């Protein structure tokens, strides 16, 4: 593969500049203000796939934002890799905490990224990681070393629940037929210790609304005499955890599998420093479910977090008002076997049942997805591990992630194939946060590792 | 006083139009965006006082927004009435719930106001009620019937805590010397049943900030493993009331006087329909401290209400984020003998003490004020009651209000005089809410009643 490495070295500046151009497009799927930018981004991805050597590329219309599909079939007897990624990005709030504008990418050196990192919304999640696959394809086709067939499916609604992708996958099983699905939308432990994500949590995301009086009231004239929707909402949310931080929704844990002592001991071997973890977040203590370690809490245990809350007067100064309504966005991370639709229903039933008289409560499900586990004896896992080992000099560690890529469970159901999560991001890349970035080192190493995966996967398949 | 009534009849259209012009000025003191408008409003008030017959009017600079002072001294041996009011108004949020723009006043007929009401921010609180006094002065001076001396002190920071007024009053005791203070910034029971507010609650208004991790985090990767500041904030706020809705802050009730059974029985005689109350607010039940009626809960009992809460992602759609910070604005209404500075300190100490490890908490006091009670054997009260009785045909009912006018307790301390709260607004006027309005009937009846107060107060004083 020396010719691929040489090709990457020769073209790396252009690879970086192309990604920077893509990052300038504000493809925020959660906010309809940006719908035109999202369409433009899908067109840019189409062009990029064509330029990289895809023989056929099309923009597939859906009920929502389009999916960019591309393929290069070299021999029907060879295995087919389906690459999935997304071209939409998270919202940028709180915008005031960004050190540079989120859609004006700049390269800065950091302690963790001495070779520089690209700072922009989507730099890591997922434009940067998705674009590694586009450039890896270019490197393979340009050097005549593509060893198998490849298909691309790049969507624009990952950050808002992938509804249109579900619609698309269910209607295109033949088109999407593959032997392995490859996704880079996760992270690795560090730049010297690669890891492969073997488990993902499921997700149920809901919005709740508590309504008290039919209009905002003067808190002096009505304070203490009517149910204040904000106070009630805080009481209701607070009651969703008990004193040990177990979730109190009846039936919530029914399908949660307890890991064996051996499995937990195996997990505990992953390198982890609680002191470094606390220091990096600037907290004096971690916090979570009693009886579990930090790494267990954010991977093998389900959670319930408020992602946003608002109500009443939130401007400058003071206003003595009792709001008519209060709202919260709440998400639950789920573990394998917990069904997100069932959990959403349990939440809704419970949350409505704990509303006191004097208020009404509305629960609106936003989106969700199932959890997923990849077996490490799968040849996809083995090929990925071999590729990482060759590039990084050490074997990859299998890791259960706390995050969710709801579509992975659907792929297995609809396309009958396994997914390999080859992530090159780092925890410190601040995805979903201000100052998101992606290391130049990670970007280029990703482009270098991916062709090796194709090579070993093809060798192990035939 | 027939000539005064005739004068009002003759000029009422102009009186309404002048108020409408004043209401067009967006004097929102809580938002510094409007600072220029506030200054313009103070100038408009100065001109209005001059036009109404004040011999001397000045705009008094303060550390904050100016105070408009005016006076007409006709005889040093006659009593002096000091009129207090405010020209600033509440913020307009939520703006989307207004049926017409808050600073484009319009007159509309309503069920309660068949003669029409002026809809605008500040229509009742307090521009409309303050302007009644300006027009009452005009009516008295124009008809040669001003029976005593009068001073006006109109401030621009009432809705944000009157800090500059405190500064001003402490430095101008001689200038402000008076025999009675007259304020119209409260309400009456109905247009056929006048009432005089004899008690006001005190206030402590604070803002709290809970900080967890030093940046927003991905809820998948960190969810369940670190303290989520929003979840923690809801837990902390929820714990401020027990199951009977008593406030749990240690020492909070120490100075609260329990009313005797007789006093409570007397209070219970005020006309009140719980069914109408619930219907007006569209709620299926009232809610509050166990052991007290609705009217007691919002007048003789202290309260704690969240006036605003915010944190995390509150835009359209979903964002799977754990916020770094969560905030709330919290106010406590206090009853006589509770000292607001002491209560603020108790809150701060308690709130900080209940913060779990993993977060830090900051409590910032906004403003506050003491409660107040006017004795009904005071000649000011008697003069007001006689004036109301003559205009409305029935005696006024003394009432304890749940609201706060923090400055009233200060007036007594610094100026050694009692305050009479002659309110002409109605509960349904939606002050502090969208679609605030003030009845034309109430405005004109106020202008008619005020000169009678001057007359009877002067007669009773000499």
In helices, the fraction of residues of chain A equals: 25-40%
Rg value of chain A: 23 Å
> By CATH's scheme, which homologous superfamily of the largest domain in chain A applies?
Zn peptidases
- Strand portion of chain A, in percent? 15-25%
- Count of alpha and pi helical runs of chain A: 13
Oligomeric description of these chains: homodimer
Flag low-confidence runs of chain A. none
Structural class of chain A: alpha+beta
CATH architecture descriptor text of the largest domain in chain A: 3-Layer(aba) Sandwich
| Assigned CATH class of the largest domain in chain A | Alpha Beta
Termini Cα gap of chain A: 19 Å
CATH topology of the largest domain in chain A: Aminopeptidase
Overall 3D shape of chain A? globular
Can you count the beta strands of chain A? Answer: 18
Strand order of the largest sheet of chain A: 1-2-6-3-7-17
The domain tally of chain A reads 2
Largest interface: A-B, 101 and 101 residues
Instruction: Look at the structure and give the mean pLDDT of chain A.
Output: 95
């Amino acid at each position: 593969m020396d010719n691929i490495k040489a090709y990457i070295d020769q073209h790396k500046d252009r690879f970086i500049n192309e990604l920077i151009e893509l990052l300038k497009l504000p493809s925020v799927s959660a906010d309809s203000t940006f719908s035109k930018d999202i369409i433009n981004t899908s067109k840019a991805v189409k062009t990029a796939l064509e330029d990289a050597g895809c023989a056929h590329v099309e923009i597939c219309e859906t009920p929502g934002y389009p999916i960019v599909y591309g393929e290069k079939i070299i021999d029907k007897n060879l295995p087919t890799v389906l690459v999935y990624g997304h071209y939409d990005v998270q919202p940028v709030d709180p915008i005031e905490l960004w050190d540079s504008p989120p859609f004006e990418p700049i390269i800065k050196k950091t302690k963790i990224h001495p070779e520089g990192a690209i700072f922009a919304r989507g730099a890591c999640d997922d434009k940067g990681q998705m674009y590694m696959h586009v450039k890896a394809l270019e490197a393979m086709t340009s050097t005549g070393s593509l060893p198998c067939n490849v298909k691309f499916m790049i969507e624009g609604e990952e950050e808002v629940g992938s509804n249109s992708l579900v619609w698309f996958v269910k209607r295109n099983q033949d088109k999407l037929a593959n032997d392995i699905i490859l996704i880079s939308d996760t992270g690795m432990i560090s730049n010297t210790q690669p890891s492969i994500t073997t488990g993902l949590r499921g997700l149920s995301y809901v919005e709740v609304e508590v309504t008290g009086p039919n209009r905002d009231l003067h808190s002096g004239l009505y304070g203490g005499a009517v149910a204040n929707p904000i106070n009630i909402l805080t009481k209701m949310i607070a009651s969703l955890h008990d004193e040990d931080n177990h979730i109190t929704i009846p039936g919530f844990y029914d399908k949660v599998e307890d890991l064996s002592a051996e499995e937990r001991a195996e997990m505990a071997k992953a390198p982890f420093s609680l002191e470094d973890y606390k220091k990096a977040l600037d907290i004096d203590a971690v916090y979570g479910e009693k009886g579990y370690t930090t790494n267990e809490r954010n991977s093998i245990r389900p959670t319930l977090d408020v992602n946003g809350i608002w109500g009443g007067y939130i401007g400058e100064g003071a206003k003595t008002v009792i709001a008519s309504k209060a709202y919260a966005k709440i998400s639950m991370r789920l573990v394998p076997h917990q069904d997100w639709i069932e959990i959403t229903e349990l939440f809704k039933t419970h949350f409505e049942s704990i509303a006191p008289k004097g208020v009404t409560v509305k629960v609106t499900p936003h989106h969700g997805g199932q959890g997923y586990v990849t077996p490490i004896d799968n040849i996809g896992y083995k090929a990925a591990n071999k590729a990482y080992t060759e590039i990084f000099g050490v074997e990859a560690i299998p890791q259960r992630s706390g995050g969710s890529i709801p579509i992975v469970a659907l792929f297995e159901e609809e396309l009958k194939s396994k997914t390999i999560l080859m992530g090159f991001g780092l925890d410190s890349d601040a995805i979903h946060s201000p100052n998101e970035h992606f290391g130049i080192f990670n970007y280029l190493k990703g482009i270098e590792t991916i062709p090796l995966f194709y090579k070993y996967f093809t060798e192990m398949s035939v």
